[in-house]
Design a protein that fits this description.
By secondary structure, the chain is an alpha+beta fold. The chain has ten helices and 17 strands. The protein folds into three domains: 12-106, Rossmann fold; 125-185, Dna Ligase, domain 1; 191-359, 2-Layer Sandwich (D-amino Acid Aminotransferase, Chain A, domain 1). Helix content is 27%, strand content 28%. Helix 1 packs across helix 10 (293-302). The protein starts with 11 loop residues before the first strand and ends with a strand.
């Protein structure tokens, strides 16, 4: 890792993506005396409300990208589906943190699983699927039930189908795109947990406590910390997350999602997905940590020392999806921290905000 000086207050941080994560990154940057410039194709992006500079243009608009790069000092992103060509174009002009290689690995499920397997990090058994013939062969090898997923552009349950009968294969294959796809063995997990981890420009690594996650309709509903897992398993999850950011030569915050799989003597972990960005299951850090995940990411990409990720309270983060946001403020109490995203339209399945509820400690 090069010995680069930390970027000073007043630095202009370019952020690709204008959703709620970009909004929260911009707010964190402002607290540290930085300015942000957000690039997003959607003129109604909620992050635009909290940044002094914005560019509304397509991610393949090279003239707009070049002007954006010229106007900022360092570039980051709030979502993993930034086109690879966009990342490479910008990385040639300004520091891109996390780097383009980390983005390439994590935005493709096949590349991600191959990377993890190459580092001896356990994942669910899987097979690439480029044709209906390959799908039938994969089903024969992995058995059913299994999950057929797109390798790109999938999130919150989009881009996947559960196969329970061989007759499901043809319909699922026809419905999912782009190809190739990936078939994953169905894992009989007992819990889903995640670890948010950060790595600095100097190579310092700090991770937050694992969160126990519950999903409804494929969308994260709650993250509870501490997770109801043995301390040794929590420590092991943090070690895996650290191994991943080191192997990727990563700079910034990254989320690692795990399945907890029961065993005869003790539970084990499988990595489900990794996300090269601040993570929905890390929003609890806003209320329960001295340094939340958003400030931690900004510190990392600036070359600043990382903050203390220690948890100061027990907490449940609850996503507000669709019209659930209308419960605020009537549903608040003195132990609840609300964060609303300023989105102009309420839609079913749309993340509108979250609540952090601090819990009494024994």
């Amino acid at each position: 890792m090069p010995d680069l000086p930390p970027l000073p207050p007043g630095t202009i941080i370019g952020i690709l993506g204008g959703g709620q994560l970009g909004r929260m990154l911009s707010l964190a940057a402002s607290r540290l005396g930085m300015r942000t410039h957000i690039f997003c194709p959607d003129a109604d992006s909620p992050a635009f409300e909290v940044t002094p500079r914005k560019t509304v243009a397509a991610y393949d608009d090279e003239a707009a990208l070049a002007a954006f790069a010229a106007a900022v000092d360092v570039i980051t992103y709030e979502f993993e589906n930034v086109p690879a060509a966009t990342a490479q174009f910008l990385a040639q002009r300004k520091p891109l943190r996390p780097g383009a290689q980390a983005l390439a690995v994590t935005q493709d499920r096949l590349a991600e699983k191959a990377f993890l397997a190459s580092k001896n990090i356990p994942v669910a058994p899987y097979r690439p699927v480029a044709s209906i013939e390959q799908l039938h062969a994969a089903i024969a090898e992995l058995g059913l039930p299994a999950v057929l997923k797109t390798t790109r552009l999938g999130y919150d349950g989009k881009g996947q189908r559960v196969l329970r009968d061989p007759a499901d294969a043809a319909t699922a294959f026809a419905e999912l795109a782009p190809r190739p796809l990936v078939l994953e063995a169905f894992i009989p997990f007992s819990q889903e947990i995640s670890v948010v981890v950060a790595r600095s420009l100097s190579g310092e690594v700090r991770s937050y406590d694992p969160a126990e996650n519950v999903h409804l309709n494929h969308i994260l509903a709650t993250s509870t910390v501490p997770a109801a897992i043995p301390p040794a398993l929590a420590k092991h999850a943090g070690m895996i997350a650290k191994a991943i950011v080191v192997a990727l030569d990563y700079v910034g915050v990254l989320g690692v999602e795990f399945f907890v799989v029961p065993g005869d003597s003790r539970p084990t972990l499988l990595v489900n997905e990794i996300a090269p960005r601040v993570h929905n299951s890390g929003h609890w850090t806003e209320a329960a940590c001295l340094t939340d995940q958003f400030e931690q990411h900004i510190r990392a990409i600036l070359g600043w020392p990382l903050g203390d990720p220690a948890r100061l309270a027990d907490v449940v983060m609850e996503n507000l999806v669709g019209d659930e946001v209308t419960r605020v403020p009537a549903g608040l109490d003195g132990s609840t921290q609300p964060h609303l995203y300023g989105k102009s339209q309420i839609r079913a399945g749309r993340k509108m905000g979250h609540l952090n509820r601090l819990l009494p400690r024994d």
